[in-house]
Amino acid sequence: MECKIGLVNNEGGKNIPLRVTAGNMFQTTSPIKIGTRFKMSIENATECYIYVFGRDTNNTSFVLFPYLKTGETVSKHSPYCGITGYRLFPKAQSFEADNIGNSDQIAIVVSKDELDYNALNQAISRSSRSDYLGKINEALRSILD
User: Fold this and answer.
1) Most buried residue among 15, 84, 107, 128 by CB atoms closer than 10 A?
2) E strands, the chain, in order
3) How many CB atoms lie within 10 A of CB 82?
4) Cα dist. 138→13, 24, 93, 120 in Å?
5) How far apart are CA 124 and CA 57, in angstroms?
6) Is 107 exposed, middle or buried, given 0-12, 13-18 or 19+ CB atoms closer than 10 A?
7) What is the pLDDT of residues 61-107, one digit of tens each?
8) Tell me: the pLDDT tens digits for 17-46?
9) Which residues contact 23 (CB under 8 A, 6 or more apart)?
């Protein structure tokens, strides 16, 4: 599967420069200023399901997309991207660089098949790995076996 992924600053709509650090890992070329609101851009070439997870300050994971509003148990947003092309996530919300810690980590999981993203998120949080990439890979192996 192939997707192009980026970050787009809400103010002006310009891309936030990224560099490849290793394999499928990317990092901004410079820190994002606290308070900056941005979205993730994804361009998919085939129909797929897209899920976005984030590492919390206590090294557990949380679901960033499909977005659940407070009190909701089922998301009104679908991870299914049947139409190929360019889109910004999340549609009606934005990410914001906060003042907690000195970096944030997000994971984008793209799949041909629908995944139980809540179970995947729980598996990520339960992982004994210390690094977030390791947690993601271990959790994906556990649900795909």
Assistant:
1) 107
2) 3-9, 15-16, 18-22, 25-28, 37-44, 48-55, 61-65, 80-81, 85-89, 95-96, 106-111
3) 10
4) 35, 15, 30, 10
5) 14
6) buried
7) 988 888 766 666 666 678 888 888 888 877 778 888 888 877 888 89
8) 999 887 778 889 999 999 999 999 999 999
9) none
Rounded distance, CA 114 to CA 129, Å? 25
pTM: 0.85
**Higher per-residue confidence, 75 vs 124:** 124
User: 24 near 73, Cβ under 8 Å?
Assistant: no
Sorted by sequence, the CB contacts under 8 Å of residue 19 that are 6+ apart come out as 26, 27, 28, 29
Helices in the chain by DSSP H: which ranges? 117-126, 132-144
Domain boundaries, the chain: 3-114
Are the C-beta atoms of 87 and 47 separated by less than 8 Å?
no
Q: What is the CA radius of gyration of the chain?
A: 15
Residue 134 to residue 137: CA distance in whole angstroms: 5
d(CA 29, CA 19): 6
Question: CA–CA separation, 65 vs 50, rounded Å?
Answer: 8
